[in-house]
Every structure is written in structure tokens, then in C-alpha cells.
Amino acid sequence: MAKQRRPAAVPRHGRLPRTDRDRRVDGYVGGRIRLKRTIQGLSQTELGTAVGVTFQQMQKYESGANRVSASKLWALSEVLDVPISYFFDGLDSDSASPSPSETAATDRYATELMRAVARIHDPKLRDCLLGLVKVMGEE
After folding, report:
1. Strand partners, 91
2. Given the DSSP bridges, would you call strands 91-92 and 97-98 parallel, antiparallel or unpaired?
3. Whole-number Å distance between alpha carbons of 93 and 82
4. Rounded CA gap, 34 and 117, in Å?
5. Are residues 77 and 116 in the same domain?
6. Does one domain contain both 66 and 27?
7. Distances (CA, A) of 22 to 64, 69, 89, 98
8. Residue 11, pLDDT above cutoff 50
9. Pairwise CA distance, residues 13 & 70, whole Å
């Protein structure tokens, strides 16, 4: 007997289908995870092991293909040493899209720069560097 196919509009297991907004939020949260992970110099394998998932699952979280559960988000916040709100900072609640500054912060160059600045332990030196970069950016 042939297997009956369910119409595409009927959700699986009683779940509602993911909307475009859901996908944008999941992608944004994943991008924030990737940003913090790379700033801290962790691999997907290292972060995944620390929170109890495989590196493949970390890839899915970071790409937004899979949603991050509340318990995993909690574990990620502890491992990455950020408040849970960090993963949503900069998210525009009206359109569920990142602000322009957050989009720029995900750029690889910006990430490398932030990692290098984070290694400067003297707060006065970091402040001077920030002032210099701001002045240079105005030119």
C-alpha cells in the first residue's frame, strides 16, 4: 500500500510552520553566537562540547537552520560569559532584523579587530585606541 502524503500546509507533529520572521530571529541569534565564539577564539567543536552538542549542531545553530532551545541558550550564555540578553541585543523587534551596526559587527574584519582589542588589558590604552579609530573613521 502506498504511503499517504500529508498536504504541505499541515504542520508536522502539531507544530506551526516557521515563519520568515522566525527564521530571521533564529539566524540573528546564531550570528550572535558565532560572533562571540570567534571573538573568544573557540572552535565550533570546543563550544559544542562545552554545551553538550556536536559541532554539526553548532553549525546549524549558527546558521539559523535549527533553533536554540532555552536550556542550550542558557548553557551558551554561561560558557561564553554573556547574559542571555546578549543574543538578542540589537534585534529590532518590529522587523526582527539586525540593526546596521550589528550587521557590520559580523564582518570577519570587525571580528578580528574586536578579538585583538580584547587582548589589550589596559583600559586606558583600549580607550585611546577607540578614540583613535573614531577619529580615523570620521575622515
Report:
1. 98
2. antiparallel
3. 21
4. 18
5. no
6. yes
7. 9, 14, 16, 13
8. yes
9. 20
Residues in the chain: 139
Residue 9 counted as domain residue: no
C-alpha cell at 118: 580584547
Alpha helices (H) along 18-122 = 20-39, 44-51, 55-63, 70-79, 100-105, 108-118
Secondary structure (3-state) at 6: coil
Is 6 inside any structural domain? no
Q: Amino acid identity, residue 30?
A: G
Whether residues 112 and 84 fall in one domain: no
| pLDDT at residue 86, rounded to an integer | 92
Q: How far apart are CA 63 and CA 90, in angstroms?
A: 18
Q: Band the pLDDT of 75: cuts 50, 70, 90.
A: very high
Reported as a single tens digit per residue, the pLDDT across 78-131 is: 999 999 999 998 887 665 555 545 555 556 677 778 788 888 899 899 889 888
| pLDDT score, position 82 | 94
Domain count, the chain: 2
